[in-house]
Each structure stands twice: as C-alpha cells, then as structure tokens.
Design goal:
Layout lengths: L6 E13 L11 E20 L2 E18 L4 E9 L2 E11 L4 E10 L7 E2 L2 E2 L12 E8 L1
Antiparallel strand pairs: 1-2, 2-3, 3-4, 3-5, 5-6, 6-9, 7-8
Amino acid sequence: WHAKGEWMASYRTMHMGMNTLSENPQGMVMNTPFSMNMNMHMFGFMYAFSDKLTFMAMTQLLDKSMISKSNSGTTSKVSSEGFGDIVLSGLIPVLNSTKHNIHITSGISLPTGKIDQKVGGITLGYGMQNGSGTYDLLNSVTSV
C-alpha cells in the first residue's frame, strides 16, 4: 500500500505459450486445439486516498492466437485482440510491522472486455475471448 497522496502507474507484459493442448484420438470432435499463444500488456494505477486506503485500477490489452487441427488433418489459425475486463479495488493495511505485513484487498472486475469475438461468422471459444462477461468480486488477504 501507499501513504496518503502517493500514486503509482505500472506497465507489465507477459507472454504465454501452450502446445499440444488436447488430443482427439478417436475423432470425437471436428476440431482439436493444438497450440495457443497470448501476449498481455497490463496497465495499472494506484492512488492512496489515505494511509489506510489505496485505490487500484487495472486493465489488459490482449493478443491471442490458436491453431486447431481438424479430423481431416488440416490446420487453421484464429486470433483475437482487444482490451480485457477492468478491475477496480481497494487495498487496506491490517498489520504493518518490521517482521510482518498483512493487508486486505477488496474489489470488483467489470465485464468491459469483448465476449463476442468472431472469425468467419463463428463465435470464438471462451479462451479466445478478451472478457469474462461477468461481474466478479475479488477479495484477498496477503501476508508478507
């Protein structure tokens, strides 16, 4: 957390790659995901309204791609990009000592990311969408 009046802006980047996501040995489905890549750019902002409350806001810019294989052996690639959901939360210190720190975080994720990304008129699966489509309460306790 921060002292009253302090603020912080942050930018983080992450790449995640997954290969051989699933197998389709008996041809039970028409298309099987084979690999997926995601690049994420995370933007954050924190501001301390007081010594006891720090406000946080965060969103991500996502770039996802997936390669699938069909039963006939052909491969196809789909992709999506855009902003994800926005997270708003507050950070409250509970204990601050030289040996131990505890704080509580409480917030909400707002469904601002797209959930209707399509390729060729077909809606992409959940993993390829940029948003969750739901309001989510986010609560945690952190001890350091």
